[in-house]
Amino acid sequence: MREVVVVGAGLAGVRAAGELRARGFSGALTVVSDEVELPYDRPPLTKQVVSGTLTADDIRLAGAEDFGARWVRGTAAVGLDRERRRVRLADGVELPYDGLVLATGARARAWPGEVPAGVLTVRGLDDVRALRAAVDGGAREVVVVGAGFVGVELASSLVGLGLGVRVTLLEPFGRPLRALGGTVPDVVAAAARRAGVELRMGIGVRGFRAEGARVAGVESADGSVLPAEVAVVAIGMVPATGWLVGSGLALPGGRVHCDERLFARTAEVPGVAGALGEVGVTGAAGGIDPRIVVAGDVARCDAVRSADGPVALEHWSNAAAQGESAARNLLAGPAAAGSYAHVPSFWTSAFGLRIKSVGLPGTGDRVVVEEGEPGSEKLVEAHYRAGRLVGAVSVNLGKRLAGYARRLQEERGAAEAAGVSGGAPGRGSDEVPAWGGAAG
Amino acid sequence: MTVRISVDYGLCDGLGQCALVAPEVFALDDDEQLVVTPDPAPELAGKVAAAARACPVRAISVEGA
Ligand SMILES: Cc1cc2nc3c(=O)[nH]c(=O)nc-3n(C[C@H](O)[C@H](O)[C@H](O)COP(=O)(O)OP(=O)(O)OC[C@H]3O[C@@H](n4cnc5c(N)ncnc54)[C@H](O)[C@@H]3O)c2cc1C
Ligand code: SF4
Q: Which of A36, A93, B52, B60 has the fewest CB atoms below 10 angstroms from its CB?
């Protein structure tokens, strides 16, 4: 392999670039990022960067100088021609490749419809700068729409600033961090209230009121209007795959579908597959492209699955581990590549709660508080499905999770040995929440 | 070769990602503080290096891995 192109310079792309070099790839390496910013880490954005305890410089990831890579910044990839093996950039340049790493991550899901100025989303450094600028400029009424981890962390950081910012957190689905399942969302809700956040749960949002061009309020589905000098829309993310439409890759739910080894799956187009020299035609999604691997938030990997099929992860550790595995497998080629075997793990922190999870909590049918008192701020909850452990969540008791991670690994090994498959592929967790209107 | 681990406790946030990767060497205590086993066996060098890479705040540095 002589020329590798990595598209996307977030955690997954940077780790892939580093691993390529660590594994002895000495050819030409090009990393493409549409951000002008040097690569950085996202988890601190909503925590320490909003709080002001870390700066942009503190959260930098390794970069071009570390890998002897050619770095293209501030230019988006806009097209992929797999037959000619070229990535097309927004400025018209075409980058040829022998190997390609797709790591374009995701964008914050935008509000469906026009929004006035002062309605923000948070995914990158610029977003956090804009939010801090508004607060530092005197904004005191902040409404956060969506109580996933980004919304919850922001609410916590903003009330923790000590500037007297009043934060209202709106969540049409009834509980913060509901993806965790079990009782932890209730613990989070109680802690948020105690910290002074106004919680409005089970109420959908209809839209935004403006005064002039700026936001003045958030209109909820029950007709009431909450005053807002700033509103943050934190309703999840959209994989950054628009540029891959028409490439012949399989894009279920907008994510790039990849096999167990992280090779990109191709959409089933009879005739095209043979022309591209694809191998291992399996199942409805067609074959794979042996020159393309996928990693991070943009990926939907067959190796990460619940009983309902492949699950897309939006976690730091997954992006890091997939970036490295994808690079190794690209160099090894499909025949020698190993299956991506990583127990998912996730953490978040807000309101003095350190919440960590392993596996896929929220995909179980039974939740058991195995340590600590239910509802307390120090507990471990195990999630089972059909009697099998599928995940665990800890609140301020992270020391127990390593044991659960080990059990999950053993269960997986046992399931594989017994030939138990995770269920039919094709159904993932790509559900789109029904924002707006009378959700409830 | 021996593996020398140093942890910057100023950075360490008790996230425990390292403990998930190399539980033989890293663990959290009751207060979610990191406890490191000194002088891990040389054959754990690879795991220790992987644990260092798994730390989101880059608190772990390793020599001899
Ligand atoms: C605010 C925030 C807080 C988080 N906190 C946590 C946490 O506490 N714990 C946790 O486990 N996870 C957390 N995460 C999730 C974690 O940060 C992500 O899983 C991780 O960043 C994914 O990395 P990635 O490289 O796949 O994608 P990204 O980080 O999205 O990087 C993709 C890069 O590709 C670029 N790009 C996109 N399209 C193109 C294109 N066409 N051409 C060129 N470049 C392109 C993007 O601009 C971006 O720079 C958080 C995420 C956010 C946003
Ligand atoms: S992963 Fe890093 S932050 Fe977490 S406990 Fe280990 S050293 Fe500390």
A: A36
* Nearby residues of A208 by Cβ (< 8 Å), 6 or more positions away: A111, A115, A116, A119, A215, A217, A218, A219, A228, A231
Average pLDDT over residues A37-47: 95
Q: Name the token pair of A153.
A: 């962390």
Residue A75 touches partner B, C-beta closer than 8 Å: no
* Exposure class string for A37-72: b at 16+ Cβ within 10 A, else e: ebbbbbbbbbbbbbbeebebeebebebbeebebebb
What ipTM goes with this model?
Answer: 0.83
Choose among A79, A7, A2: nearest CA to A294: A7
Asked whether the beta carbons of A103 and A296 are under 8 A apart, the reply is yes
Q: Do B19 and A347 touch (CB under 8 A)?
A: no
Taking the CA of residue A281 as centre, how many other CA atoms within 13 Å lie in the half-sphere pointing to its CB?
A: 12
Check: CB of residue A197 under 8 Å from CB of residue A74.
no
Q: Can you give the pLDDT at residue A206? A: 95
CA distances A16 to A103, A113, A321, A327, A415, Å, are 9, 36, 9, 5, 29
* Rounded-to-integer distance, Cα A225 and Cα A207, Å: 9
Q: Which residues line ligand 2 (CB under 6 A)?
A: B 7, 12-18, 26, 34, 55, 57, 59-60
Out of A320, A321, A354, the one facing B14 most closely (by C-beta) is: A354
Contact A354, A184 (CB under 8 A): no
A53 token code pair: 């305890």
Q: In this predicted model, what pLDDT tens digit does every residue of A221-266 receive, in sequence order?
A: 889 999 999 999 999 999 999 999 999 999 999 999 999 999 999 9
Q: What are phi and psi of A296, to 5 degrees?
A: 90, -155
CA distance A142 to A70: 41
Q: Output the CA–CA distances (angstroms, integers) from residue A385 to A307, A360, A416, in the order listed.
A: 8, 10, 17
Which among B43, B34, B45 has a CA at the least distance from the CA of B10? B34
